[in-house]
Each structure stands twice: as C-alpha cells, then as structure tokens.
C-alpha cells in the first residue's frame, strides 16, 4: 500500500505522469488525424480536449517540464481548467448528436457554455493586464459553482433519453469527476501538499480510465456508422432485387396469359392483353430510366431556367426551355425504342451538354468529330447508351477544371466495327477515385454499371466483339484527362 501511495504522490518520478502524458499524446494525435480524414466533428473536439488536459498536467511534473509550465502557463492555470470543461461539453454533445436528439436542450446548454467561455476569457484578460490574482481566484470560485450546475443541466437530457453510446460518456465522466473532486477538496480545505499530490495521482488514474472509455465510445460510434452504411446498401440491393423479381413476374405472367389464349377463338382478348402488356412494360421502362437520371440535373436545369425568367432574360429562358423539353422528349422516346441511330444518340448528347452548360456558364467546350466513311444514320446503338459516360465525365472529371473540354470521336475500325471515344481534360480516374474515397459516404456509379449490363445484353448475339475501356490520356499530369473507348460491331 505504501508503494502505491508513493507512486501516486510522486507521479513524475514514478513514471505515472509520463505514461499518462504519452497516452494522451497518442490519442490526441490519432483522433486529430481521424478528423481530417473523415471530417467527423467529435474527433476534433476530443483531440482538443486531450491537448488541454495534457497542458494542465504539467503542473504535477518537476524539472524542466515544471519550469516550462511555470514560465508559460502558471498565470493561466485556472483558464486551462475552465477551457477544458467548455471543450468537454462541446465534445459530449457532438459525440451523442444532441443537436439531432434534443435540439432545444442543445441550444440552451451550448448558449450557457459559450456565455461562461466569454466570462472566463474576460476575467483572465482583466487580471492579466491589471495585475493581481484576486480576480482570477474570484472567477475560479465562480467556475466551481457554475460548472456543477451546468453539468447537471447538460446531463439531464442525456440521462432522461435513451441516446445511443451515452453510457461511455456517463461512466467516463463520473470516474473523472470523482478523481477531480479529490484534489479540489484537498486544495480548498488546505490539507497539505503531500495529500494534494496523492489526490492528484488518483486524478491521473481517473483520467486514463476516462479517456480509454471515450476512445472506445468513438470506436463504437464509428462501428455503428459503418453498420448503418452497410445496412443501407443491403436494403438498396434487396429493393432492387425485389423490383427486378416483380418486373419478371409481371412479364412472365403476361407472356403466360398470351400463350394460353387461343389465337382464333380469343383474338380480341389476346389483343387486349397484348396492349396491357405493352403499357405495363413501357411503364417499367420509364421507371427504369427515371431511376438512372440524376435528379440534380433536372433540378439544376429547371432552377437555371427559372433564374432566366426572374432576370427577365426571356430569350435565354425560351431557348433553354426548348432544349430541356426536347431532351426530355428524347428520353421518353427511348423508353419506346430499344434501338436508335448513332445520329439520334449524338443529337441527344448535344442537348444534354447544352443544358449542363447553363450550370457551368458555358465553360464546357464540346466537340463531335466523325471519321471518314461513318454513316451515322445507318449505325444502330442501344438508346441513351452514351449519356451516362458523358454525365460521369462532366460531374466527376470536369467539375474542378476551369477550361473544360469534352469531345466525342467516332471512327470506323475495318468493315465490321466502329469506335466511339469520349475524351475530357478533367482530373482523371485516379484522382476522382481518391476524392470519392475521402468522402464519408461513398457512392458507386450505378448508371455506369447499368450501362455495362445493357451493352452485354444488347450485344449477346455478337459475343466477344464489343469492348469498353477507360484510360487516362496524359498520366502523371495535374489534369491527365480520361478517355472512354467503346468498340461495337456494326449491325
């Protein structure tokens, strides 16, 4: 028991203080880097909280560390404690997402927290410039009264409502509060320096347990976020599978009804069922295409046209409204026609780029180049097969670039194949993937995946004769650009 007391009373000489400082330093740097990687605000507040605690514990050290503390932070000893409490409340409420669960309590507690921060800074600035420690001591005594009241009010909604992860915070805070209460009582009751050091040693142990619990809580929070994302993806996959089963069920049911009817005796009924089948199949196609169209594109287009109307630019509004309506008509026509000519496909792409150019103030330089011997009217392709590639180039490749260049090249490859290449001068595939990985919520390009599946289905009778490749045009440069090359057989 005497050895334990000796370790607690001499935390620096025994290595307890050094161990505690090392744990805090590692946790602070780790969570600070996590914040920059994932942009989750509790990581930032937690790393700042650990940094303030790390500064505060230098008062327990000796030698050059203690001298460094006396020279730079002695006059701000009370302020460090007060700032630590303020940042702690910011971390606690952001960690438990109180703004979402209890918005009114969050508003009142944060307002009280920032009011106290202003009072604490004002008191220490006045004390620093006017001299004397009386004002600082008076402010700290006010903190000793204000802090428990605010803590009780802050923890009331946490204890009242079953908020996930609250036990990490409650248990950790209780341990730290009990550890902190000892040195405060010893100091206020003047029970001696030795007893204060022993009580401070218990406070260091409490701090280690508290921070371990907080780190476990942050890890648990990250695990819940990952599980939530995984469940959302599984739900989306399940919904898509159910939609596909429903579509197949409707199609099979209608086909079975058509096959079981007698062509001669039930001709009228067959015609009616066939018409119903075509209507439902058309609706499925429309729903399919709607699911692939980017809703931001429609919103931005209509919003830009509305802006022209508000600014009384009627000619621009009428021009782009005609373009938009023509593009929508092309999309709806594609739901009825499985195949369209390459000329019609390029015309639809031209309309799409013209509409997107409204959002970029006509910064996109779009060009279509047709090689010798290419008959655009005679070449048949799946409807709207190029739209997703062009959309991907604009949204993911060209958005950060000032001078945006986009081109489509159509060339004949021998007597039986043609090559359609879509080139841009954007940031390239590698950088685009890095940006997507840095986002907290990553998303796959569903449109490109469905386009590949449509190509496989459409050219199933031409096995091995269609190919799709993505390459960077100038690897290693700041804007390497991307080339999407689609090689298809002539029909």
TrEMBL record:
Q: Where are the transmembrane segments?
A: 16-36, 43-61, 76-96, 108-126, 138-158, 165-186, 198-218
Q: Where is the Histidine kinase/HSP90-like ATPase domain?
A: 384-490
Q: Which SUPFAM superfamilies match?
A: ATPase domain of HSP90 chaperone/DNA topoisomerase II/histidine kinase (SSF55874)
- What's an example GO cellular component term for this entry? membrane
Task: Write down the Pfam families for this protein, in alphabetical order.
Answer: 7TMR-DISM_7TM, HATPase_c, His_kinase
In this chain the 7TM-DISM receptor extracellular domain maps to 16-220
Q: Coiled-coil intervals in this record?
A: 236-287
Q: Which keywords belong to this entry?
A: Coiled coil, Membrane, Transmembrane, Transmembrane helix
Gene Ontology MF term list: phosphorelay sensor kinase activity
Domain (Signal transduction histidine kinase internal region): residue spans on this chain: 285-363
Superkingdom of source: Bacteria
Protein name in the entry: 7TM diverse intracellular signalling
Q: In which organism is this protein found?
A: Salinimicrobium sediminis
């Amino acid at each position: 028991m005497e050895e334990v007391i000796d370790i607690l009373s001499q935390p620096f000489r025994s290595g307890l203080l050094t161990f505690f400082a090392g744990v805090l330093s590692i946790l602070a740097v780790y969570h600070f880097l996590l914040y920059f990687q994932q942009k989750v605000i509790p990581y930032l507040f937690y790393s700042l909280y650990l940094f303030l605690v790390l500064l505060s514990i230098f008062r327990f050290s000796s030698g050059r560390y203690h001298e460094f503390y006396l020279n730079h932070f002695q006059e701000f000893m009370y302020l460090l404690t007060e700032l630590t409490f303020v940042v702690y409340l910011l971390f606690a409420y952001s960690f438990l997402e109180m703004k979402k669960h209890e918005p009114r309590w969050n508003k009142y507690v944060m307002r009280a927290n920032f009011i106290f921060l202003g009072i604490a800074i004002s008191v220490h600035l006045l004390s620093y410039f006017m001299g004397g420690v009386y004002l600082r001591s008076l402010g700290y005594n006010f903190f000793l009264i204000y802090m428990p009241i605010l803590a009780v009010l802050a923890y009331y909604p946490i204890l009242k409502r079953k908020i996930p992860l609250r036990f990490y915070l409650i248990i950790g805070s209780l341990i730290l509060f009990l550890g902190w209460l000892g040195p405060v009582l010893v100091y206020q009751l003047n029970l001696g320096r030795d007893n204060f050091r022993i009580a401070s040693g218990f406070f260091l142990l409490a701090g280690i347990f508290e921070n371990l619990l907080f780190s476990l809580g942050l890890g648990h929070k990250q695990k819940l976020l990952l599980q939530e994302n995984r469940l959302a993806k599984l739900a989306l996959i399940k919904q898509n599978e159910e939609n596909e089963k429903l579509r197949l069920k409707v199609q099979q049911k209608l086909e079975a009804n058509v096959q079981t009817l007698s062509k001669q005796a039930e001709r009228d009924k067959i015609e009616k069922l066939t018409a119903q089948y075509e209507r439902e199949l058309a609706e499925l196609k429309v729903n399919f295409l709607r699911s692939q169209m980017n809703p931001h594109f429609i919103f931005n287009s209509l919003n830009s046209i509305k802006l022209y109307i508000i600014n009384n630019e009627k000619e621009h509004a009428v021009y782009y409204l005609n373009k938009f309506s023509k593009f929508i008509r092309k999309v709806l026509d594609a739901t009825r026609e499985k195949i369209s000519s390459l000329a019609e496909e390029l015309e639809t792409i031209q309309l799409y780029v013209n509409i997107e150019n409204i959002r970029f103030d006509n910064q996109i330089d779009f060009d279509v180049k047709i090689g010798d011997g290419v008959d655009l009217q005679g070449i048949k392709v799946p409807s709207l097969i190029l739209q997703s590639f062009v959309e991907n180039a604009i949204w993911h490749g060209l958005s950060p670039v000032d001078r945006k260049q986009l081109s489509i090249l159509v060339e004949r490859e021998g007597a039986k194949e043609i090559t359609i290449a879509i080139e841009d001068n954007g940031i390239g595939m590698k950088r685009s993937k890095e940006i997507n990985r840095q986002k907290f919520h990553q998303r796959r390009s569903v449109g490109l995946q469905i386009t590949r599946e449509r190509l496989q289905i459409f050219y199933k009778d031409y096995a091995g004769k269609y190919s799709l490749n993505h390459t960077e045009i100038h690897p290693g440069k700041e804007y390497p650009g991307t080339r999407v090359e689609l090689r298809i057989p002539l029909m």
